[in-house]
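Database export, one record per block. Field names are fixed; values are copied verbatim from the stored entry.
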Amino acid sequence: MEHKKAYDFLYNKCKEEGHNELANHIKQVGPLKLKVSNKTFVTHLSKIIVGQQVSVAAARAVWDRTKKVLKRNKYKKPNKNLDLQFKTAGLSRQKIEYLNGIIFNKNINTLTKNKLNKMSAEDYFKLLIDIKGIGPWSIEMHFHHIEAICVCIFGAFLKMRMLLFNITLTTCIQYSYHHVMSSH
């Protein structure tokens, strides 16, 4: 609901300040929502493993086949039949070993989104780094995607503030920095 409040504020402020073109654009775009993945943690980690060190197109093709194998998986422990299915999907021996380590890990399988959300960044990093096949590079790429979204939102926020209050970028950044630092 926070996204709707932000949208209403920006739209009304633009209208109030006479920035009609910007207000019309905001109205046309509508409230922005960040889509939350519905993947399980195991599926998310598996997709990270599959996508490592291959092109985007190759990762997508292998993931589409691997995803089908994961959906059909009724095994309780690693076995040769499942490994063969993963190999047919395009996975290397090493990635199959990593996937088996994830999909049959009872600690990972019992983690809910709620439990994950309550973890500190340090605990989350430790959880990920302890999983065979998930290294610092994979974690960095995972967090980099989240940070990129935040940077884009912050950039749009700065631009809107500059337009609404007719101030320079430097003044805007200084004000934002002061506001953030004083709230912590």
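Remark 1: The longest helix spans residues 136-165.
Remark 2: The CA atoms of residues 161 and 172 lie 7 Å apart.
End of record.
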